[in-house]
Amino acid sequence: MTVPALAWACALALIAGLLLFDFFFHVRTAHTPSLIEAAIWSAAYVGIAVLFGFAVWIFGGPTMGVEYFAGYITEKALSVDNLFVFLIILTTFRVPGAAQQKVLLVGIVFSLVVRTGFIFVGATLINRFAWVFYVFGAALLITAGNMLKPESEDSHSGGTVVLRLARRLLHTTDSYDGDKLVTVIDGRRRLTPMLLAMIAIGGTDVLFALDSIPAIFGLTQNVFLVFTATAFSLLGLRQLFFLLEGLLDRLIYLGFGLAAILAFIGVKLVLHALHRNTVPFINHGEPVPVTEISTAASLGLIVVVLLVTVAASLLSPAGRAQTAVANARRHATRYLDLGYEADQTLRERTYAKMTAEENTIAALPRKYTRQIREGEAELIALLERAHIVHADRVARTEAGLPLRM
């Protein structure tokens, strides 16, 4: 279905306006968003995406409406997997909390620009070559299989290549200067690690697009819907990161759910390719009479799979243990790295979060506490170091001595 130019103009204006609003009102002044702030703005961006979907439904009809919502929900679910990588990157580069918003926003904008190019290239290929559906379907099935492999922290680091390449090409300082991209050291202008982190975030998200773009084309071939669903799923990603940061490790079964969704869409694409077949060695180049899966059925299955896997993850004791361990490690690392930030209130708040996670670990069933003691020697050493540093700071404060950074 041809989408009027006015609809494109309105959608582009809305997306550009939201990005500008995000930058000038949230990111321009460096700060660490509170949980309440992240929750409010995450809900606001989801609400805007849903209202846009209803507008599509009203002006474009039920078919376009269902395709938009199926694409948006799928892209949003897949974007949660991106957040694991964002967390690894921000931790690896030791990005100060107040500067993380700018890193995420710039990286996401870069990703949106590149994904837009992918979308139009994909649409052109689909319109010219029906066999591309076979390629997309096979790619999704392979991706689904890879997601079922045993996970480690590196399994989420699809951007490891990006990280290595960026580090090799860009020579930066070892420390940050607020949220500045360039600083002056000994009279010379030098890049800070901020630029490196931005490139890593944007490049990693582009790599994820190689899976998500074929997935959404499996639900709709309308370029307007593919673009807007992709854009709105990315727009609220920064706020969603700060909202779910402490819960990401809890979603231990989400990978299985995403693998099932990608495999399902991969099969759907193959069926569609058979229905439009022109490949000579398949049915002599003639279309194959197969049953195609409707977008409405796809939407229903996607929602059910996500609800089941998220509920199972949140109710899982193993997920609770994994979350406590990951959060304790994260808070201890941040506490020790807060020499970059002079806000002592933030330092004490981070230490309190770390000790709260330690209490959570201590309250876990014996099975999990034993596993942690036996398999997390690095974590235990990290926590002990944080306690020693905190005790030293308290002693120096009480004695009126200057604090060590």
From TrEMBL:
Q: Does the keyword Amino-acid biosynthesis apply?
A: no
Membrane-topology annotation of the record: Multi-pass membrane protein
Coiled-coil annotation reads none
Q: Give the residue spans that cross the bilayer.
A: 6-27, 39-59, 79-96, 103-123, 129-148, 195-217, 223-244, 251-273, 293-315
Q: Which UniProt keywords apply?
A: Membrane, Transmembrane, Transmembrane helix
Which InterPro entries has this protein been placed in?
Integral_membrane_TerC, Integral_membrane_TerC_rswitch
Highest taxon of source: Bacteria
Q: Where in the cell is it found?
A: Membrane
List, alphabetically, the Pfam families matched.
Answer: TerC (PF03741)
Q: Which family does it belong to?
A: Belongs to the TerC family.
What protein name is recorded for this chain? Answer: TerC/Alx family metal homeostasis membrane protein
Organism this protein belongs to:
Nocardia rhamnosiphila
Q: What is the lineage of its organism?
A: Bacteria, Bacillati, Actinomycetota, Actinomycetes, Mycobacteriales
